[in-house]
Amino acid sequence: MNPDLSADIEALKRQFPNTRELYREVCALLFFRHGITPTASRLYQLVKRGSMSTPTDVLRQFWVDLRENARVRLDRSDLPTELRELGGEWLSRVWSLAQQSAQAELAPMRDQHGEQVRQAGAEVQAVRAELERLRERLRQAQADLEAAGAREADAARELATNQGRIASMTEMLRETAQEMQRVRQELAWVARDAARATGEANALRVQLELASRRPRRAPASAPPAARRDSQEALALDPVAFAPASDQPSLIVDQPPEDVRHP
Fold it and tell me: How confident is the model at residue 215 (pLDDT cuts 50, 70, 90)?
């Protein structure tokens, strides 16, 4: 690019912040100062603002304004008729050629931008479809998370219930063990009392056996009264006859406190 043209365009960019005004000034700069026929694509490459429709509209209006201004100047009465007609035809020819050139350059760009627009539309549709899939996955993940939370809550409640049951069964086992211990103690007392009663009964039978045998050993010459007195005298007391360890105690053994009060 011509350095002078680049410098002039940069100056116009600073001077005209409005995009359409900037394109119009660049058209005039190219045509009148540098002798370059402006086109939409060239304008867009130099200015690089807005969309492609902006330089196209500005360029079309530029040629219309140029033709109108030229026609006014050619309508002056001091110019010869042939010159006015020749100038009008020349300007009309220039305008037509500029329009044709602009349309010819604009057509490929329109096709290119149309293809880009179609590609962008396809990409947008693909992105929307992917976004919808992600949203569906998110909804599914949220549903799974809620289900997992519900299962965890049910498991926690079941665990608490089982712990309560275990504690209750443990308490029952402890009470059963205590009851079995009391029963064992009571059985031990009953067995001891039964053994003591058995020993006492055996001692009594021995005493009775001895008592029944002693009168037969009395002298035959003794009178009957004397023999009866002798038998009574020789009769053994079952309690006195029993050994000291087997004699019944006058004090009843008391079972342990946990046995007396189950």
Answer: low
Q: How far is it, in rounded angstroms, from Cα 110 to Cα 194?
A: 123
**pLDDT tens, residue by residue, 71-90:** 545 555 565 666 656 666 67
CA nearest to 42, candidates 95, 101, 111: 101
Q: What does the chain come to in residues?
A: 262
The domain ranges of the chain are 3-113, 175-260
Give 182-210 as a DSSP string.
HHHHHHHHHHHHHHHHHHHHHHHHHHHHH
Rounded CA gap, 247 and 240, in Å?
8
- Amino acid, res. 69: N
Nearest CA to 37 out of 102, 124, 91 is that of: 102
Whole-structure pTM value: 0.33
> Helical H runs in the chain?
3-15, 19-28, 40-47, 53-74, 81-213, 224-234, 238-241, 257-260
